[in-house]
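Hi F.,

I've been meaning to write this up properly since the lab meeting, where we talked about keeping a consistent format for the predictions we share between groups. The idea is simple: the sequence comes first, exactly as it goes in, then the structure tokens exactly as they come out, then a line or two of notes. No screenshots and no reformatting. I'm using this chain as the first example so we have something concrete to point to.
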Amino acid sequence: MGDVLAGIHATWEFDTDSVLIRFERGIRTPKLFQSLRERRIPYAALSSVTLTPGKRSTVVLRAVPRPGADPLVEAAAGQLKEGCDPYRLVLPAEREVLAEYYADELRALLGPASDEPADRFLVAAPEAPMNFKAYDGRAGFDGERISFRWSWTGASSAKWKAGDQTFRVSELAGIVWRSPEALDGYLRLLPRAAAPVDHRTGGSLGDLHGPGGSADVDGGAPDGVPAGAPSVGPDQDPAAVLFGLGYGPVHESLPFAAAVLESVRRTQPAPAASAPALVNAGRRDPADIAERIHHLGELHQAGLVTDAEYTAKKAQLLAEL
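Output, unedited:
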């Protein structure tokens, strides 16, 4: 598409096969966005596109990712607050017509598999090395190993007895991230022997016991937790670190969890390969092209599209006939 759509806290740059989301670094920009900086989202990773009214005279353009396509979304397991959703672009209400135009353009680029879960991650995870300070220790990840170094003040006696921990990615089945914005947030690593692997989600058990699930401290397992999951609470589990006020914030711990999850997926046997789906294969309906050119002309007359953009986009649409 070759166009740019600037919104509040982010700018979307549309390319032939993907959209590059660049996040602002202003003081009012959510810290998660600042941490991510930019993300390239292939159109093949999207399931749908929505445009809805926002708050305070705004509209919200949202690209909805396919289940299993983005390690960040899989690790978050539905726990991100609306304002921290990296797939939302907030625009002033007066740009609604332009937003509607781009929403239609994105929908036209969705492939035949858009309504199906992805069999592999299509969006790149944040890159290692990375680390963050948890309530009971410090977590580090170098791309191959995850390390937990316990603190004198926060770690339980069980963790001190176990000693500092190092886990190879190849030893893990997945992760569980519970948001630090919850009362009992934590990051827990799941060794291969401790949990089954779901190749559709890269091994994360977020879809097995939900974003709020955890094992009981007294040894019982909550509803939905598979047999073999850790039977102790994360405060006693040497494969887990606890969050707290100022410890393990979302913008540090979630990218960390996503990077680990993506690395875990790469070490697991790949599911049977299927023929790649062709995105936007074949010629488009001439009536659809005519309608889009008419819509483009309205944007041009309204001053929302420059002469050069109008000419280039019209030529692109005509070439698809």
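Notes:
The two ends are 16 Å apart (CA to CA).
Confidence is low (pLDDT under 50) at residues 195-228, 273-282.

If this format works for you, I'll send the rest the same way.

G.
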